[in-house]
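Feature request, filed as a ticket because there's no other form

It would be nice if the structure record came with a short human-readable summary line next to the tokens. Right now we just get the raw output. Example of a typical job, pasted below so the devs can see what we mean:
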Amino acid sequence: MKKLIFLGVTAALLGAASCGDNNNNANEQKVKDSLERASGRDMYIKAVTDAEAALKGSKQFDGKLALAGIKAYSDFIALYPKDSLTPEYLLRAADLSRGTGNYQQAAIYLEQIMENHKGYPRYADACLMAALNYDDHLEHTKDGIERARIIYQYLIDKYPNTTYAENAKVLIQYLGKPDSLMINDIIKKGGK
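Raw output as currently delivered:
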């Protein structure tokens, strides 16, 4: 009977030890995966940094360099959507998209900030950029003007005593109207 108990305890200990090895192997694999992700992240950050350096080094706006920058930002954003750098890269990608005339893509990047990164320190900047993008470039698309109106009103309500609200109050009055009308009104008011 003691031999059976001894064999049972030994088998249990060996089983536990082998599970421990599996757990250690699993933990080692998790550490390896984490390190690979970290080095992958660094690789994507380097791609962004290199693209930004190329853009800054160019004497004039270069559409091909801008597209390379957008791709670098997009790759990072797709792989690390919850990373602390993601909202900043979204904003930069939106800015470059606007520069290349791809206003619809800029709107998508800005909407991602508004939906998923409310704690981003430049959140109000992103909202104003989105409203201006809809107002200036997507006014003829389905719901472009209405989306601009919603965002302007959000800025007025959320940031009432700021330049964001002041700008939104002026801009909301001229939605769907030619820019020349706003410019003429500003000149008339400035002359009085």
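Something like this underneath would help us a lot:
Confidence is low (pLDDT under 50) at residues 1-21.
The chain has one domain: 26-191.
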